[in-house]
Design goal:
single chain, mainly beta, seven-stranded mixed beta sheet, 11 strands, globular
Length: 115
């Protein structure tokens, strides 16, 4: 089982990044999938997610209108499009897949928003 994130980096305030997460080793289409983030000294927080089989999605109020989440069950990927980034979006971003009590996590990708 693997979840591998990519796309993180350094961006200026107001910029955009696209994070991708590739799943393998399990039936991704049968799992809900989410993005979480964790800033230094803070708890991990939920950012956005998609349901099984990806019919509905939702984002946290803190990123609503700026972040968009989507998934591709054929490619077994979940994507987070982040626009109008702010310094407070700086964090390590993690993708996960969950079904019932089973949760899989990626290793995380760093996003830094700074001028």
């Amino acid at each position: 089982v693997q979840l591998v994130e990519s796309g993180g980096g350094l961006v200026q305030p107001g910029g955009s990044l696209t994070l991708s997460c590739a799943a393998s080793g399990f039936a991704f289409s049968n799992y809900g999938s989410n993005w979480y983030r964790q800033a230094p000294g803070k708890e991990r927080e939920w950012v956005a997610g998609t349901s099984v089989p990806g019919v509905s999605s939702n984002t946290a109020n803190s990123v609503k209108g700026r972040f968009t989440v989507s998934r591709d069950n054929v490619k077994s990927t979940i994507t987070l499009q982040m626009n109008n980034l702010k310094p407070e979006d700086t964090a390590v971003y993690y993708c996960n897949a969950e079904r019932g009590s089973t949760r899989y996590w990626g290793q995380g990708t760093q996003v830094t928003v700074s001028s």
